[in-house]
Amino acid sequence: MQLTLPVQLPADETFSSFFPSGNEAVLNYLRTLGSNSSDIKHPITLLFGGASTGKSHLLYAACHNAELQGQSSAYLNLSDFLHYSAEIFDGLEQLSLVCLDNIHCIAKDGTWEEALFDFINKVVEKSNTGAHTHLLMTSATPASELPFLLPDLISRLRWGLVYAIEQPTDDDKKAILALRAKQRGLSISSATIDYLLSHGKRDLPYLMRVLSELDDLSLQSKKKISLAMLKQVLSTSDH
Fold it and tell me: Where is the Chromosomal replication initiator protein DnaA ATPAse domain (predicted)?
């Protein structure tokens, strides 16, 4: 069961659609969450890395996986924290899995930092009783480099499990595009993928948007994806 929050998780962002790109260790660990509470090594995990490394994808996938296992979960993107009250954390420690994306966005906001620190402590206290909630978070940098005002919050984050999410190479991006196309039931040539990487932006959100537009255009025109179709998409959209 997913807690009702103002967010809809992308249905196609699962563990099976995540290309490891050197992140096999974290992927294997996250797959265990929700399957058996005794497998949880630590109640807190922080994933850090730059933009377009797939951190959000992993959180979405963890929530989907928890739901498949019959576990309760919630996802919250703290880049939107101004739209919420810090009281949104209240009661979340009762869930099996809580995913907080982009925690760096609340840096230097004392109210939110205190609320996050208190919530982490509730999760830790619960784990000390033998019950289990897993708190999975992402940030742009390691905890030690986050500009938080609250030193105890940084200490708490460093106390948990920490994984660096590796940036995908261009070869990884080619493999990711091929994988996501296959999962959509699309056939896309290596030459078309090479052209996209050479003539468009290289960040994954952009590449996924182009792939989605190619899928739509292919369906509408009832034609296979071609280099000409890609050029049409690139010429008519600024993405």
Answer: 13-163
